[in-house]
Specification:
Helix content of chain A is 24%, strand content 32%. Chain A is an alpha+beta fold. By secondary structure, chain B is α/β, with parallel strands linked by helices. Helices cover 44% and strands 19% of the residues of chain B. Chain B is built from 21 helices and 23 strands. Chain B is extended. The chains are: A alpha+beta, B alpha/beta.
Chain lengths: 217, 745
């Protein structure tokens, strides 16, 4: 399906000639028929028989991730790197807001203080902590701040884009890589996501090394 | 929960209960001693003693149970029943000793309570004996107390305020959210204003339409348009009214919510003074004086934190009053006053501040003695001592190490008196004033903020970011023209009130780089401590604001120069400076000579080293690079590049300047140009290599516009570690070279 509303319509560069008449894509027939076709689309031919056999066949049931052992991961991007964190470590994701540096404490990794819903929290750059290359593209609208929390301890980390939530089973995880870089040292495991390998960060170790960035000797 | 855990929990509860009941016991007893007819005191005493007894029995602490029983015996014996007559002071002392003993046992870790009990067993036993002997000894019929021992649970005279315990952290979060909602609500009014504008545009449209002459035959259409337009107007008007009403309502609710949350942090004044009646009694009897304590405004609400920090200064002031202020009974009689002295403590809210007055009706301050002491200590000249008026003389008493007490007593008079009180009062952003009438008594007035969580501040800009300075610690804000700055020997100062005040740049104190130049006129905050004034130079003064301050995150530790954090009205985080600590940093920096001179006026080149504070460790400090170049543009752009990577950057204008700065240490790398006045890059390296370690091996990167091979060789021979040509210079190659030499920041 061609999402012309995102290309030449209100979501894109507004070059569509039809806009002169309809003012907003919401009013355009192309948009509404696209919407209708999405909702009324037929399931793929093998969908029903496929699932019927999976559920009828006992062996297929093992692959169904049960709530007990399922891992909920947030997959996100920092620069070119795609990383993941366990969802239970995340409190919320917010649009970026101003950071005030802290004299004698702020460095490349510990950025400063940030206001998240009325609470003043510590913000850190994961890019610097993991020693990742700077993004080659200018900061996009997808930039977010993720509030991570373990117990009483909260950290706000700047991320370039949230790519989604990934549900996987512990069996899908592969052992962590041999340590080559700062990022490897904080990686708990690798898993396949779309067509690439994504590093699942080790929450406690991550928070530990963040804490070391600000702690007194 | 296992048995041990349960016992621990029980002991914890018992310790809490014990502390509460002991407070009630001693306050009631002292009140009863003051006035034997005080209503409810007897009942309170009995009830509290009985509660302790019952609670001790429950957790199996037999010795406490026995002692509580003995206290009960004494309290029910006829010895105390002599209604209308003053209590026997000896008996009161005995009871107070028993309360103290119980308090000692109750303090510390609850799970160790039985251990402490064993250690104190003997004292407890002898006290119990004494109490029982007294109860029996004065009892005509020994069997009488046994009957009717159970005190009837008299209905409390007034229902006490119901108190719920809330986790302090949770309360802070609630306060944060309440503050945030107050800020969020502010968005509504501008939105309503926007709609107002839309409405006035519509009215203009209406007028245009009204003037429009349609072509014949289209009148009908115009009428329809006008009607639609009318409908839009009506609808908008209606919605706007509703929105404004909603905005007003939300605003009120958010403000009230916020006020209530702040109030939740307030406690009645008397809660902070539970130990005071006891202190007064013990002190007066040990000095052979008779003192009546009067508390006015017991329920005045005071911020929890202020209340906690007030205890020491008030105790101190009370000690002073009893020791120095009030006379002995004989002295008072001969002065024609009642034998019993009056010590009056008054707390009230006045003009948005908490005002506390401690007044005694003693002899007042001996002004002649103050004069004498002041001359003796060289605080004032003999010549001008007569010029000082009473208020100025009393001010002297607040100076450190000043006491008129003729001999050092155990109680007070070590010369560490009122100045300590003054310091503590200042710490919470208040002020202290002393007044005195000869023969009529002395008063000490405390002016304190109502809450520590809201601070009146001045917003200033330092290092391009906003900081707040508490107004209570500001002497004055001045804007001085560049021509009024005196500069000599590298020090800048300002003449103010006939005194020279040193001008201190604020940035290095916070570890920030100095700006390239100075604003004209220059904004200066005059701060003082212990009679020493400094002018703190900031970049800009932005205005006054009330801030709700929160403690800094514990993970940051104590950050030099900072007191707390807060949020501005638009939600931006901001840091509040700690003036006392800043002044300490100034003194340290002046003593070590690490304070860089004030930059010249805007545009003039200058060197900008920063101070590294002794509390910060090198391993957590970003690496510091000294950029040496005679072109300001090159310095700035290199500085920005390196700072962007997280390095700390200092700048020098030529080799000579660089050499001087490097002597002070703290640098990890030098990036230098070659052609410069006074001392060029090659010679800078040669001079550096001839110095002692660690400077001799300090990495040097030369960045030159000469890209001949011969120049490169000269540079490397001089001792440079890297030679980069400016021609082929790219940020990446520079950063890579820097990283190779000293690693990441």
């Amino acid at each position: 399906m061609h999402d012309c509303w995102n290309q030449i319509g209100v979501g894109g560069d507004r070059s569509c000639a039809t806009l002169n008449d309809v003012v907003h894509c919401h009013n355009c027939a192309v948009y509404s028929s696209a919407g209708r076709s999405l909702l009324e689309r037929q399931p793929p031919a093998d969908y029903l028989p496929g699932w019927t056999s999976v559920l009828a066949d006992g062996s297929g049931a093992e692959r169904v991730v049960t709530g007990q052992q399922a891992l909920n991961l947030m997959v996100f991007r920092i620069g070119e790197e795609v990383l993941a964190l366990p969802l239970e470590l995340l409190q919320e994701v917010t649009p970026p807001s101003d950071i005030h540096s802290v004299p004698h404490r702020s460095n490349g990794t510990f950025l400063g203080l940030v206001n998240i819903r009325g609470e003043i929290l510590l913000a850190a750059s994961l890019r610097r902590l993991l020693d990742l290359p700077a993004a080659s593209t200018p900061p996009a609208a997808g930039q977010r701040m993720a509030v991570t929390a373990a117990g009483e301890e909260q950290w706000v980390i700047a991320i370039d884009e949230v790519l989604g939530i990934h549900l996987c089973s512990p069996d899908d995880l592969e052992p962590p890589p041999v340590v080559h870089s700062a990022a490897d040292a904080l990686t708990q495991a690798l898993f396949a996501w779309k067509d690439r390998r994504v590093a699942l960060l080790d929450g406690p170790r991550l928070l530990n090394s963040l804490r070391r960035q600000v702690s007194q000797p | 929960m296992n048995a041990a855990e349960e016992q621990r929990r029980n002991l914890e509860l018992f310790a809490e209960e014990l502390a509460d009941q002991l407070t009630l016991l001693s306050t009631s007893l002292l009140q009863l001693e003051n006035d034997a007819n005080s209503p409810g005191c007897r009942e309170n005493l009995m009830r509290a003693a009985h509660t302790v007894k019952g609670a001790a029995r429950m957790v199996g602490l037999q010795p406490i149970e026995a002692l509580a029983h003995a206290i009960e015996e004494l309290l029910t014996s006829p010895a105390i029943e002599l209604a209308g007559q003053a209590l026997d002071p000896e008996m009161v002392t005995l009871l107070l000793r028993a309360f103290d003993e119980l308090a000692t046992v109750g303090q510390g870790k609850p799970e160790l309570l039985p251990v402490r009990l064993d250690q104190q067993a003997q004292q407890l036993e002898s006290l119990r004996g004494a109490l029982l002997a007294r109860a029996r000894g004065s009892t005509a019929d020994p069997s009488a107390p046994e009957a009717g021992l159970e005190p009837a649970p008299a209905p409390p005279t007034a229902t006490p305020e119901r108190v719920v315990k809330v986790d302090a952290q949770q309360l802070n979060r609630i306060a944060a959210l309440a503050g945030e909602s107050m800020v969020a609500v502010r968005w509504l009014q501008p939105f309503a204003d926007g709609l107002q504008q839309l409405r006035s545009r519509q009215r203009e449209l209406d007028q245009l339409l009204a003037r429009w002459q349609p072509q014949p035959g289209h009148e009908n259409q115009l009428a329809m348009i006008l009607e639609k337009q009318q409908q839009c107007q009506q609808l908008l008007l209606h919605q706007l009214d509703e929105l404004e009403a909603f905005a007003r309502r939300s605003n009120t609710i958010a403000h009230r919510l916020y006020g209530e949350v702040l109030n939740a942090n307030m406690r009645p004044f008397h809660e902070g003074l539970v130990g005071l009646p006891r202190l007064v009694r013990d002190l007066a009897s040990s000095l052979g004086k008779r003192v009546r304590l009067e508390l006015v405004g017991r329920s005045t609400l005071v911020d929890r934190d202020i209340l906690r920090r007030l205890e020491a200064p008030i105790n101190h002031a009370v000690r002073n009053a009893i020791d120095h202020g009030l006379e002995t009974p004989q002295g008072r009689r001969s002065a024609g006053k009642p034998e019993q002295g009056l010590l009056r403590l008054e707390a009230l809210h006045r003009g948005g501040m908490l005002s506390i007055t401690i007044r005694d009706d003693g002899a007042g301050v001996d002004l002649a003695a103050v004069r004498e002491r002041a001359i003796e200590r060289g605080l004032i000249d003999k010549g001008c001592v007569d010029d000082l008026d009473e208020a100025e003389l009393l001010e002297l008493l607040l100076r450190p190490g000043f006491s008129t007490a003729r001999q050092v007593s155990e109680v007070s008079g070590r010369g560490v008196g009122l100045d300590v009180v003054q310091t503590m009062v200042r710490e919470v952003g208040g002020s202290l004033r002393l007044s005195s009438t000869t023969g009529g008594g002395t008063s000490l007035h405390f002016q304190l903020p109502l809450t520590l969580s809201v601070v009146r501040t001045l917003l200033v800009q330092i290092g391009g970011e906003t900081y707040a300075v508490p107004l209570a610690r500001l002497d004055r804000i001045v804007a001085i023209p560049a021509t009024a700055i005196d500069r000599h020997e590298g020090k800048a100062s300002l003449q103010w009130n006939g005194r020279a005040i040193g001008l201190i740049p604020s940035q290095p104190l916070l570890g920030l780089p100095l700006p390239g130049g100075l604003a004209d006129p220059l904004p200066v905050l005059v701060l003082s401590d212990q009679g020493q004034s400094y002018g703190l130079v900031v970049e800009q003064v932005l205005g006054e604001q009330d801030l709700v301050v929160r403690p800094l995150d514990q993970r940051l530790g104590a950050v030099p120069g900072l007191a707390s954090a807060a949020l501005l009205g638009d939600g931006a985080p901001i840091l509040v400076l700690d003036v006392g600590d800043l002044l300490r940093l100034v003194q340290e920096a002046l003593a070590s000579g690490a304070l860089p001179p004030l930059p010249q006026r805007e545009g003039a080149p200058t060197s900008t080293p920063t101070i590294t504070t002794p509390t910060a460790t090198p391993s957590h400090q970003p690496r510091t690079v000294l950029v040496v170049d005679d072109s300001r543009m090159v310095r700035e752009s290199l500085g920005r590049t390196l700072e962007g990577q997280g390095y700390r950057v200092a700048k020098a204008v030529d080799g000579q300047d660089a050499l001087e700065q490097l002597q002070s240490g703290g640098f990890d790398l030098v990036v230098s140009d070659v052609e410069m006045p006074r001392l060029d890059g090659f010679n800078l390296v040669r001079r550096l290599r001839a110095l002692d370690q660690p400077l001799a091996s300090l990495p040097v990167l030369i960045l030159s516009s000469r890209d001949q091979e011969s120049d490169r060789i000269t540079g490397m021979e001089a001792g440079a570690d890297r030679y980069l040509a400016k021609g082929g210079f790219s940020e990446d190659s520079l950063l890579k070279a820097v990283q190779d030499l000293i690693g990441p920041p």
